[in-house]
Write a structure and sequence with these properties.
The protein is an alpha+beta fold. Helices cover about 65% and strands about 10% of the residues.
C-alpha cells in the first residue's frame, strides 16, 4: 500500500493532468447527446404488441392525434362556443405538421333533400343551433366523439401526418403551438382548454423530464456543496468529492453516447445515482484522512493509513453496487437496461477516481 501511495505522490501532477485530459476527450462525445421520449422505448423491439400496433398504424393510419377539449356550462350549441370552435379549427390548420382538423363545425354531415344527397359542414353559422344540437345528440358518429351526451363539452381532433407524428420534435413543436393558441383563446373567451392524445403524452414526457433535469440536478449540486462545506468548513472538503462527482458524471454520459444510447424519461435520473455513488466513495477516504490528520499524523502517513483502512470497504461497496445494477442491463426494456449499464459504469469509474484522484488531491 505504501508503494502505491509513493507512486501517486511521485506522479501526482501527471495523474491529475492525464485524468482531466481523458475526461475532456470523452466529453467531446456529449455534443451528440440526444433525448428520446417515445412510448416505443418501453417495449422490446421484438414485441408482438408493438409489431401488431405498427401494422395497424400502417394499415389504418396512426393515432398521431392531439385532442383539444373545452366545456361550456350553457351548452356547446351557443354562438360564443360555436365561434370558438370555428376560430380554433382555422388556427389549428395553420400549424406546421398538422394534416387535418376534425371538429363539430366541420364534421361532414350527410342529409338528403329532393332525392339529392347533401354533404356539408355540420355548422357553418349561428342559425338553427338548437336543431343542430338535437341532430348531434342523436348522431352516433358525433355523440361521445365530438361532444358528450350532455352537449356541454366538445373535442377538436388535430391530426398529424404519419411521417411527422412519429417525430418527437414535431410533437413538441405542435404541442407548444396548440398551447399558444389555446392560451390566447382562453384569455379572450374565458374557456379552460385541455390537451391530450398520444403525441401530447410523448411531448409532455420529454419536456417535463428535461425541465426536471434542468432544475433538480443544479439543485442537487448546490445542496451537496452546501452540505460538504457545512461538514468540513474547508474548500478542499468541497473540491475533492465534487471533482469525483463531476468527472464520473461526464464519463458516464459520454459512454452512454458512445454506445449509441439516448437519454429518456427514466435515464434522466442518472445524475442522482451518480451523485450518491461518487460522493459516498470519495467521502469515505477523505473523511478518514481528515480523522488521522486531526491526530497530528503527517500528511503522507495519514493518507496511507486512511487508504489501508478504507480500500476494502470502498471496493466491496463499489463492486457490489456495480453487480446489482449490472443485472438491470439484462432487461429487455431499453430504459431499464441503459440505466443499469450507466450506473454500473458509474460505480466502477467512481471507485477508480476515488483511489487515484482523491489521494492525489
Amino acid at each position: 500500500m505504501q508503494t502505491y501511495i509513493d507512486f501517486l505522490d511521485r506522479y501526482k501532477y501527471m495523474i491529475l493532468v492525464l485524468t482531466t485530459l481523458m475526461v475532456a476527450l470523452f466529453s467531446i462525445a456529449l455534443k451528440d447527446l440526444a433525448y428520446e421520449g417515445s412510448y416505443k422505448i418501453w417495449f422490446d423491439k421484438e414485441s408482438k404488441i408493438l409489431k401488431d400496433y405498427e401494422h395497424f398504424r400502417t394499415t389504418f393510419s396512426g393515432d398521431d392525434t392531439f385532442i383539444v377539449a373545452f366545456k361550456d356550462e350553457n351548452g356547446i350549441f351557443n354562438p360564443k362556443a360555436v365561434q370558438t370552435i370555428l376560430a380554433l379549427s382555422d388556427a389549428f390548420k395553420k400549424i406546421d405538421g398538422v394534416r387535418k382538423v376534425d371538429s363539430l363545425t366541420n364534421y361532414q354531415y350527410i342529409s338528403s333533400q329532393d332525392d339529392e344527397i347533401i354533404v356539408e359542414d355540420f355548422i357553418k353559422d349561428f342559425k338553427n343551433l338548437e336543431e343542430k344540437r338535437v341532430l348531434a345528440i342523436n348522431d352516433k358518429l358525433i355523440l361521445n366523439q365530438l361532444i358528450d351526451k350532455d352537449g356541454l363539452t366538445t373535442a377538436i381532433a388535430v391530426r398529424l401526418s404519419n411521417e411527422s407524428g412519429a417525430d418527437e420534435e414535431v410533437n413538441i413543436y405542435v404541442m407548444k403551438a396548440l398551447k399558444d393558441v389555446t392560451d390566447t383563446f382562453s384569455k379572450e373567451s374565458g374557456y379552460m382548454f385541455y390537451i391530450t392524445g398520444a403525441p401530447a403524452i410523448t411531448a409532455s414526457l420529454v419536456t417535463i423530464s428535461q425541465s426536471d433535469a434542468m432544475v433538480l440536478m443544479p439543485l442537487a449540486v448546490i445542496m451537496v456543496i452546501v452540505l460538504l462545506f457545512t461538514l468540513f468548513r474547508t474548500y478542499l472538503g468541497v473540491l475533492v468529492p465534487s471533482i469525483v462527482i463531476v468527472f464520473t458524471f461526464l464519463l458516464v454520459l459520454s459512454i452512454q453516447v458512445l454506445l449509441g444510447y439516448k437519454l429518456n424519461n427514466f435515464t434522466v435520473n442518472i445524475p442522482s445515482f451518480v451523485t450518491a455513488i461518487a460522493i459516498a466513495d470519495a467521502m469515505h477516504l477523505y473523511l478518514a484522512w481528515v480523522f488521522y490528520r486531526s491526530k497530528n499524523i503527517n500528511n503522507k502517513e495519514a493518507l496511507t493509513t486512511a487508504f489501508q483502512k478504507n480500500i476494502k470497504p470502498v471496493a466491496l461497496t463499489s463492486f457490489t453496487t456495480a453487480s446489482g445494477f449490472a443485472s438491470l442491463g439484462l432487461s429487455a426494456i431499453e430504459p431499464i437496461a441503459t440505466l443499469g449499464i450507466a450506473i454500473t459504469a458509474a460505480a466502477v469509474i467512481a471507485f477508480v477516481l476515488t483511489v487515484t484522484i482523491v489521494p492525489v488531491l
